[in-house]
Design goal:
about 375 residues; Rossmann fold; six-stranded parallel beta sheet; 16 helices; about 45% helix; globular
Length: about 375
């Protein structure tokens, strides 16, 4: 039985790694070792609970006012003895977080091959998103196996001269996760606050590069739409960042149609996505999930490392300029043809079987065969 170590630390990573962990658990030839850094704490715990995953190791890194340096140094220091003792055949990391970067370096220092789930995403803009763009590029420099979600991601990796025989287009495990979390009979107390006759906007915003003035401008634009119409309401699960909390609560304090909640667990969030009219977000994962649920996404960023969704018509980049946001949002609220075009566009991010493909590739790799 060969050991496969998964290392992650944030809520989005947990959601996307969970289908792989479940697929590893179901395979008698492989033994998963689950390590979480705790880069997120409460949000990570709820995601793990939703998939009934109990970590083998938890580094409990999260601290008040933590910095990128704190996370990186803490993860490197605490991961070293765990990897050295466990000696996994492969270490799997996900995406572009600071945990991902530190775990990749820690595994490399122990000469353990790294498999990068969601490899090859790029904006080629050093500080957008920050620090994620450099995290993912450095991770791909070190990795031995690349699980690219799309053909475009594969082409990015080939352009950077990574070995073609180690790059696999698998789809995105975010789509796999939806198969476990969306229920037709879902109900929640949050929905009890919403008039079912109104169009529900689901909003999230948290990225470092947006915090401050860009976030204020974007949320102010959404506020103006809410106050100018009587046919919409909004749910905004507010990130635990104190800066995000302060801005969101200040702007929406006097808006009765705005319902601010604590961060939602993955089951609540995915089901609210399914019941919403459209999404406004700067999140990466939601850009992949919402199209599978036929929900248009207005991306509150100037760039995206997921251009496939823009090309397919499921996403529209609107940045944080108030006029652009209000125009795009008003169009989707009033123009049913435009709305239907986005809602019905085909999701380019996979068919919900990415985790199975990744496990098959791992087994063939470990057995010395080409997948």
């Amino acid at each position: 039985m060969q050991r496969i170590m998964t290392i992650f630390g944030t809520r989005p990573e947990a959601i996307k790694m969970a289908p792989i962990i479940k697929a590893l658990e179901a395979d008698l030839a492989l033994k998963p070792i689950v390590v979480v850094t705790g880069q997120h704490k409460e949000m990570l715990a709820t995601a793990l609970a939703a998939f009934h995953i109990r970590p083998d190791y938890n580094l409990h890194l999260m601290k008040k006012n933590q910095t990128l340096t704190n996370i990186t140094v803490g993860a490197l220091t605490k991961l070293a003895p765990i990897i050295k003792e466990s000696r996994p055949a492969v270490t799997l990391v996900h995406g572009d977080t600071t945990t991902t970067l530190a775990a990749t370096i820690a595994a490399f220092y122990q000469k353990i091959p790294v498999g990068h789930v969601e490899a090859g995403l790029r904006t080629y803009s050093r500080y957008d998103p920050y620090p994620e763009e450099i995290n993912r590029q450095v991770t791909d420099v070190i990795s031995s196996l690349y699980f690219a979600p799309t053909e475009r991601a594969r082409q990015n990796l080939l352009q950077e001269h990574h070995h073609a025989e180690h790059i696999y287009v698998t789809g995105n495990t975010a789509i796999d996760a939806l198969r476990h979390t969306v229920y037709p009979d879902y109900h929640s107390s949050v929905l009890d606050q919403i008039d079912p006759a109104k169009k529900l906007l689901l909003v999230t915003m948290h990225r470092r590069e947006n915090q401050g003035v860009p976030m204020r401008k974007a949320l102010q634009a959404i506020k103006e739409i809410l106050l100018s119409r009587d046919d919409v309401e909004m749910i905004f699960p507010v990130h635990l960042s104190q800066q995000v909390q302060h801005i969101a609560r200040e702007i929406f304090a006097d808006v009765p149609q705005a319902h601010l909640t604590a961060p939602l667990d993955v089951i609540d969030f995915h089901n609210l996505t399914a019941k919403s009219y459209l999404i406004l977000t700067d999140s990466g994962g939601i850009q992949e999930e919402a199209p599978s649920l036929h929900k248009p996404v207005l991306v509150l960023r100037d760039t995206t490392e997921r251009p496939e969704g823009v090309a397919a018509g499921t996403l529209k980049l609107v940045g944080t300029d108030p006029a652009t946001i209000k125009k795009a949002l008003t169009t989707l609220l009033d123009d049913q043809q435009q709305y239907a075009t986005m809602a019905r566009a085909q999701n380019p991010y996979g068919d919900g079987h990415a985790a199975e493909r990744i496990v098959t590739i791992l087994k063939n790799y470990l057995n010395g065969r080409k997948a």
